[in-house]
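Subject: for your reference before the review

Hello V.,

The reviewers asked for a structural picture of the protein, and I figured it would be easier to keep everything in one thread rather than splitting it across files. Below is the amino acid sequence we used in the manuscript, unchanged from the supplementary table.
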Amino acid sequence: MRLVIANDGLNDAGGVNTYLEAIVEGLRERNHDILFLHHTSASPSVASRLLSHPNRLCIEEIGLAEGLGIIKSFDPACCFSHNMRPLELEEALLARWPVFKFMHIFQGTCASGTKSTRFPLLKPCARALSLKCLLNYFPRGCGKLNISSLVSGYSWATRQQRLFKHYAAVGVASSFMELEFLANGVPAKTLHRIPLFVSPVLPGELGTPTGRSAAAMFTHGDGTSELVFVGRMTSLKGPTVAVEAASTASKALGRSLSLTFIGDGPERPRCEHLARRLNLRTNFLGWMNGRDRAGWFAGKSLILFPSLWPEPFGLSGLEGAIYGVPCIAFNVGGVGEWLNHGVNGLFAEGNSLSAQSLSHSIMKALSSTQCWSELSAGAVRVVKDYTLARHLDAIERVLSVVSREATGG
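And here is what came back from the structure prediction:
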C-alpha cells in the first residue's frame, strides 16, 4: 500500500519522532511504499533516522502547492497523520485523500493541551472542550495566564475538533483516550484503540538482565534500592513528588534509596534543591538515547511514574518492564491501560495524587524480596503484549478498512 506518513516536524528529541522512526521502518519492512511528509524543517542538531528516509519532503522548504503536487503524483491510498499543528496542511490532505489520524495527545479536546487544572490543586480535567472552557481557563489555572494564549489555544482546538468527523479513522493508545475523543465528537465507528509498544534495544533483552538474581536487583551490595524517573521534568510529570516520596519511603523502610532522573526540564533545579534538603541520594543524567537508557534500567528496583496530568498512555513507565523493573504510578489517564495493580507494579495507595500515597506503594513493593520478585516477573509477562509487531498489525487492519471504504470495495 502507498502511504503518506505525516508529522508536524522533526525537532522533538523523542516522543512522536521515536515512535515514527519505528513504524516507518516497520511498515516499509512489510512492503508498504511510504512517502514521509513533515511540515517544519529540522534543526541542524536533529539526528532522527527519518531525515535519511529515501522518500521525504518538507512543506516548509518546498511550499504547500508543490508538496501537494508531489503527493498527488505519489497517489497514496491513505495519509497517516500525527501531531500536525498547521491545520491548513491537514485540511488540504483531507480534501484530497482519506486521512487516518493518530491522536498522541489532547489535540482538539483541550484549550491548553494539558487537560489539567492548577487551582486549587494540580489535577486532571474531565471536561469536554466547549465554551465553558473559556470561563474556567483563568479561574482554574488551565494554561498560561494571558489572553492571547487563551484565544489562540481555544481557536486552534475548536478548529481541530471540527475536523474529527472528516477523518477516515482516528487512532488512540488507551481506553481513556478512546472515551476522551468520543466525548469530544469523534464518531465511534471511526475510532480505534491501538496501544503503544516497547521494544528491546537489542534482540533477546526481555527479562532479568545479565543473569542477576532477584535479590541482587532488589537491593545492591550496600543495601541501597535504586529507583528511576524517566521523562521531561515539568510540574505535570511530578518529579518533585518522586523526590519527596522516595525520601519518605527511605526513612520508613530504614534503608537507603537512591533516585536517578533520566530526562531534563524546568523542574530540575527544584528537584536538586529538594533532594539536598531531604538528604536523598540522586543522580541527574539528562536526556539519554535508547541504548544508553536501557543500560540504566537494567538492575534497578523500581520505576517511579508520578504524573499528575492524565497521561494519554504513559509509555516511559512501561520501558523498564523489559528488564523486569516494576512501576509505581498514580492512576491517571491511560496509565491503567498497561499497569495492572499488583501484577506489574502498584498504583499509589488510595489513588491520591500525593507524595505520601506514592511512598506507601514504594514501601509495599520493597517490603520483601518475594513481593518485589512477583512484581518483576509480572512486568516481564505484561510487557510481552506491547510489541511493535502487534501495533503494526492493528495499524494495518485500520489501513485496510480505510482503503477498502475509499475505493468502495
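For the response letter, the relevant points are probably these. Residues 68 and 248 are 57 Å apart (CA to CA). Residues 209-213 have pLDDT under 50 and may be disordered.

Happy to draft the paragraph if you're swamped.

O.
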